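TA notes. Do not distribute before section.
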Amino acid sequence: MRIAGIRNLNGPSVYHARPVLLMELHLEELDEKETREFPGFNEALLSVLPGLRQHHCGLGREGGFVERLFTGTFFGHVVEHVALEMAGLIGSPVTYGKTRAGEEPGMYRVIVRYASEHAMRRLLTGAVDLVEGLLRGEKVDVRVILAEAEAAARANDLGPSTSAIVGAAARRGVPWRRLNDANLVQLGHGHKRRLIQASITGATSHVAVEIASDKGLTKHLLREAGVKVPDGTVVDDLDGALKALLDMGGPVVVKPLDGNQGKGITLGVTQPVRLLGAYQLARRYSSQVIIERQLQGKDYRVLVVGGRAVSASERRPCEVVGDGASTVEQLIHIVNSDPKRGEGHERPLTRIAMDDELVERLGEVGMSLEYVPAPGQTVVLKRHANLSVGGTAVDVTDLVHPETRKACERAATLIGLDVCGVDLVTSDIAKPMDGGIVEVNAAPGLRMHVSPSEGQARAVGDAIVSHLFPQGEDGRIPICAVTGTNGKTTVTRLLGHVLGGAGEHVGMTTTDGVYSGGELVRRGDNTGPASARSVLSDPAVTAAVLETARGGILRRGLGYDWSDVGIVTNVTRDHVGQDGISDVEDLVWIKSLVAERVRDGGTLVLNADDPESAGMADLKRVDVSRLSLVFYSVSGASQRYRLHVATGGLGYTVRDGAIVREGDGRRQVVARLADVPLLANGPAFQVENALAAVAGAMALGYDAAVVARGLATFDNGKHNRGRANLYALGAGCVVLDYGHNPAAFRASAELGAGWGGPVIGVIGAPGDRRDDVILESASIAAAAFDRLLIREDVDRRGRAPGEVPALIRAEVARVAPGLRSEVVRDACAALRRMAPDVQAGAMLMFYYEDYEEAHATLLDMGARPISSLSAVRPVSDDAVQSVGRPAAGS
């Protein structure tokens, strides 16, 4: 088998609502082979992974997968189940998997959910290795694969503090997105977004972090404000440290001025000889060292969020308890085998390291790693209680004395930290503080609070999310997603213009780029999930309109989780033959994801005049019972539209020269067609686009007056570049458009039918379209135009030179033998060559590959942009024969 690639669909996709990995697997010599054909394979697989016996598979019952194994199943399916089973063995269980045949023989797509992306990537490759090894009769040690997957998870997954906050955000319905391979996470969208990195938030003051990092300055500020802190001093050299020890008389704590996680700290120093080692240890982490009086009592951490204490833990040093037979070293191994303990911060507790500090601590009490403690004898292994060195934590939140609580809250406020870990030493946290606050920490770890060794877990992640998003806020901005075959770019731009006119800072993704507040910020086709995420990450954006294309949906999923409004303009045969798409039903399956992911109470807008768009309301995966369903129709005559409105549904159509909103027996005029420049000539496809945009804007809550104002100020040439843009040239007109499929050419025929003179087409078709789609486009173009110039895209998309133009010309000759047609090498040169015909009164429809080049050529020819065909004078039919329209009956 060969793995062609593994990609992450990290938003809702056609496979699952949650992120999945998709592996393209070529079975090669195993293609068409089934498990029952390989004696001993099934038994070997089940001996290595006996848990597979519980897998239900498609049969819906335990043992279903085993039944499939022995009756015969393909090996892509086996790889899927092996990966899922191994995920459970490393404590990362998932149950969703699918295996689908690809468009190439022997290629399968193996799709699996994951809890840890990097671990699952290793498990997928490991599953292939394991299956192949067993087929060769080799002994496969699955433990190696599992260990490597666990290591990948440790190295790449979110840390426990970040995970606690992200989990709380997800429960609140706040969208989140990881921004790097570490712990930087975005919560919310647009202007409501908030950033976190572990427990540092975007609201955490950098100055406050700097103060908290300087332990000497922190103590000075707290002492000045009357908060109890231990006496101490900052020293620069060993002589200063010795003098401080003599002045205080011990015991003292020696620690780096700006250390963290207990690194470089030595407790209980009373003698100069011990001070030397403690000082040198502290200097490893800081150029300056604090010598402070050691307070007597227990070690506590109080977490303060937004000025309020939300959790408290008693921290205890790591220890072992003797059994009378095991050495200290053996007891440590037993403790470290606890599944709650891991390396670093990956799990609730950290494994105890047998380092120099531990050996030194044992030596102080006359022990060593080989010492055998008596039954029940407790051996304390480290001097301080930080979880990062193996300590444990006991929840004491409900015991904190009110005075102590206030002191901790005041300390956090004085330093200026919105999320703050206050360390204090006192005899009993349930009583007024008789010790003092020893440290104030920025970026405090949350492990001890969410997973205490003893006591109640505290929802500190929820507290931080509530601090960032007050009650009732979910961090979301209005999102409208637009999909379909034709018209989606115009609908997106028109809707974005309406919202911009209403005062929104609109983030918009389109086929020509990403826009922020009306400014183009990135050029190119930006209709995929990455572009959507970039808009939703823009802190200026207050509303998003996302053109959402088939390719991005299929290859990477959606770039958002839920929209407020979903619009489907139409679904036609364009793209059939690509990416495994065999027919229109496949396209409906892909594009209906936009309809499926409209939030509860949101609005789904469908085109009643297009059976595929309208039919999405009947799909099982699109639960319209939880949505507001809106149809639009140019004439309002379709049965689907009439029945919907008659039964109380909401619809948009054209009545008496106006766009109207109707339903519930009421009719509201939104805008007169004559007042909408886009509709000046009334072609149905532009009316459809306007109706979709109006429905979307009003679904978002904008009233008719705001929508009408937006429609009236939308200049198609300025605000809708490259989409049916009009240019006057002499007595004729040039239409610059991006059409390249049958539906686009059919719409052109409608526009050209109203012209009083000859209509010339400069057309092409993308090379990645199936032959029958290209031939259908050619046939429609032959009926729409009086003369055809056929160009070839610079990017032939896998076709041989001249192949696509030859297909088109042959089909044109077949269906319209008398129609004059030619293949042109340089489309813009042909445009210049046609200038005399246009100036004489012809309409030239130019379907470009490069908008900028075509637009510049027209301006250089002296063409001027216009907003309406009425700005030029069409000529009579007498000129038709000059451009090659066949005579009647030919």
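Switch to the second chain here.
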Amino acid sequence: METAAQPPAPASQAPGGCLDFVLFAIATAWVVGLTAAVQLGAWFYEQYQLAAAGIYLPAWYWPLIAVLQLLVVGGAVLLLALFVQAPRFRAIYRGWAWAIGLGALFSMARVCPITWTQPAALVQIGLGLLALVALRRLPAGRSGPAGPLPGAPAAPVLGLALGLLVLLPWLWSGALGSPTDTLLNALAAAVLGLASGVLLARGILMPLQARPLGAWQDVGLGGIAAGVALLSLGAGFGYGGSQIALMLVLMPLGGAAYALGRWAFGAATRVWLPIATLVGVAAAGPLVFFDPDEFLLALGTTEIGLVLRSALFAQVIGALAGLVLLGLSARLRAGPGRIAGLGALAGSLVLALALYFAGGHPGWYGEKLFVVLREQADLSQAAQIADRTERLRFVYTTLTNHAERSQAGVRAALDRLGLAYQPFYLVNAIEVDGGPLVRAYLASMPEVDRILDSPQLRPLPVPPTPSQGEQVPPDGPQWNVIAIGADRVWDELQVTGQGIVVGESDSGVQGDHPALRGSYRGRAGQNDYNWLDPWFGSSAPTDVGGHGTHTTGTIVGQGGIGVAPGAEWIGCVNLGRNLGNPAYYLRCMQFMLAPYPQAGDPFKDGDPARAAHVLNNSWGCPLIEGCDAASLEPAVRALRAAGIFVVASAGNDGPRCSSVDNPIAIYDASFSVGAIDRLGNIADFSSRGPVTLDGSNRVKPDIIAPGVNVLSALPGGSYGENSGTSMAGPHVAGVVALMWSAQPRLIGNIDRTEQLLIETARPYEGAQSGCFEGGMPSDATGYGVVDAYAAVQAALAEP
């Protein structure tokens, strides 16, 4: 029997032809591919400039990227929204255009410097609220069918349950910041969820459901469309790298978001609510449990890899949730019932809490404040004290007494507020657990000069793996030792550094390394006064990274790797994960001036008689770590006043001129070292002067030393080659140890020791770099290449 032919659907109801689907696929690839490429490329360029050259890009960089993305990606989508005839696809493109535009708006928060995480969160909250006002102009379309359906209340509950599942990887691997950090970023995630819910509901879901084709086609097409919109929103909303994690997490939620919204639409309830709940909770992972300060190439791959793994796991969970809800959409018109929804929520909540408290890092790990007081101690009389021990004791006593007196008012105020704090004396400063309100309160106190950030890294789920080398143990002096003539000092002058103690503040030191265990001052198990670990609390020398073991080996290592193998060393961990802060650096510098027991009080239990003679500092404190130009200068001046020689690596931001731009290498009171290679050429990475950060135009570095492919000790009893001015500085620390060992009357005489190092340095004869190298000293190579043999001979000739 023949059936009557169905009349063709009106043009306004047509789902779109084959060409429309092909165009949709091309447009999806265009938006996703270009958005991801632009965001990843722009982030990588910013990180490369920061890590390789030490350059902070200007505030307009990210807004410019946003405008370009808006023009290229959004412009193409807007053309499709204007000229595509199929109503469903036209609605999708219009929704994408809104998402791309809002993403560009959100990205304006990136004008905030990378360390301004709390202000950036506040800006994003404000921009999100502005977006919600703008979205009211988006036509809502019709509501769902009249009359509530049994599953209606379950959609928002299911959104919360699924959001918690997507949050699971972050609960295990991440950690909360301070209470203020957590509140602000949770509000930012909520605002992003609301904006996403309203946009997807009004801009995509309602127009598509006004012309339904069935669960598989609606959720399939709508889920892809929603995912692209969420990608665009996430690409704009994050800052400091969190946008990359947001893109990975949010895009796969398109299917689940559309399915939940479809059930709410069919039940004539708030369509945006389940979408907002799902997206808001899922976005809390990258925003609340991840610190943008840690998404840095300069930190290495550990933190970045952790964030990306968490985002990928969340991505898989979100995609699977979408597939499950797609299948359920074909069977259930209004979704699971109330009891099923509550059961899913209870299960997700129990799982999330169990994972967080059993396998995560409960507690607060947020930023602190570094409060610098206005009045610093006067140590001018120290130079008149001839006896080294008495001079050290005078400096220590003067500093601690001054800090106790001048900090009394600030400490009393902090005690009244119940805030935890750590006072310092080498710089008259206090590190405080506090947020913006505490900052504003302390800034109003007359004793306070300025308040800096003191960044805190959040804990890792597993300890970092120390780097190990694959080189065979050396069988004699290495090229770098021979190049500066240290082997001749041992053989011809019979000086190896005996009687001198070198202080090493770095990632740690493997105390039982064959090349180092014999020269550790606490080798008889006496770690008090010889070892301090403010990062991890280890009771004996250990190295979580490898950097400190390598630098210590170049100073005192046995077997031909160390410049002064007869000297002793003491150690402190100030850079456990390659991102420190002023407080960590000061803890170790104070320990080097007046060592104290591991459970002791640096103000009361310090013993200046055990101070180190020479300090090696193969680190810098850039802006991202909270330092400004003058933050650590009082500390270096105090150490110099005490007669402690401070060696600082110049930095690895060359060949750019004026790239010696981080404390403590910039200070006149420190002796800064650049790097050369085996052929005697200045290393491309070695930072150049002059110092412009403090306006001094000071010539730096002071001297240069081998720093390319230097063989030294590494954890696990191994050996390996490293490059950097971090490898060059230890050579000079070792040479000073040799000079003071050969001529004890020079000990504590920093001015004369520096003068001898300068006078005996070999003229630089390598390739020129173009950074003000016409005179002497040069802003690329200082006074030339350190010469251990000539310096020790000059020291021995001192009257």
